[in-house]
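so my prof wants the structure for this chain in the tokens format not the other one, which i didnt know existed until like an hour ago. anyway here's the sequence
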Amino acid sequence: MTGTTSFGIDIGGSGMKAGPVDLATGKLTAERFKILTPSPSSPDNMADVVVKLVQHFDWHGPVGVTFPGVVRRGVVHTAANVDKSWVDVDADALFTKAVGGSVEVHVVNDADAAGLAEVTYGAGKGVAGVILLLTFGTGIGSGLFLDGKLVPNTELGHIEIDGHDAEHKAAASARDRESLSWKDWAKRVEKYLTAVVHLLSPDLIIVGGGASRKADKWVPHIDVGTKIVPAALENEAGIVGAAVLVAAESPVE
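here's what i got, hopefully its the right format
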């Protein structure tokens, strides 16, 4: 981190994107840069992309990175939408070594990072109670907050609905894969959200991920008795949240 600027990388099943973030505003200070997630999405292949993203911005400070799975103290424990060889990998150490070892890299669950961005700068800012951020993309990520404090690694996209992982039927990728209309896909999302509301009784649900850019096409078709709003930071929330988290763990230079 340099002054009030930090740096985040958001890893997804289809793309890896990055950018520097102004911590005072939560805005990117340069246009985000994206590289397709490599295939296979192995640790070494993705580490190469992380290096390219850092070099693109000529960044020399600490780096925050999101990951689509459970991450505890930098170690990956699940990998639903990337290569299974990620399980048990110390991602903090892998990425830190890849970028040269002179700066720290900290890895966090992707939806946790997106949720932190939203409660800090976006749709959840100043909202008390239980806030649930759900990202709809290749899979479904979840970030749960109580009065602004994170409950990490909830992974609610993997609760069972009709014998399947919820994300298999209700992720944005399912809409694309099955050529569903926005309205028909919204019915699936509503069924999933109904189960989640019964579990957690959230005060606010924030929907993010790629599908949030077209929230007006599907959110109005959903009624689960809880307020649902699109993510204010849209698809940049992961980058911003990662930058916030690494800034909190690293001293100002």
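also thought this was worth mentioning. The radius of gyration is 17 Å.
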